[in-house]
Write a structure and sequence with these properties.
The chain is of the alpha+beta class. It has 2 helices and 6 strands; from the N terminus they run H-H-E-E-E-E-E-E. 17% of the residues lie in helices and 44% in strands. It starts with a helix and ends with a strand.
Amino acid sequence: MNYQAVELLAPDLQDKVDAAVDALENGFADGTHIVGEDIQPGTYTATASSGTTFSDAYWDRASTSGDILANDFVTSAQSVTVTISSSDGQFTSRGFGFWEQSS
């Protein structure tokens, strides 16, 4: 992806802008997301800002009927990784900010 303003004003930043856009396109923010519609199955990682940790954060994977399949209350972690299955109905998270798809 190429952004004309970046290309004209700061061409040396084009690669960083492209990487940030790719991350946004391959991840999602906190909230409740329907698997297969809002987000795709896969492995995702949330990483705390440098020098900080997640505290009092929560995530859960649920079935289409809302039954919790797996969950975790995170009291202190620098990063958290979750694999969302194609059979999951939804994924909910609070306190992580952004989840990026792992490669």
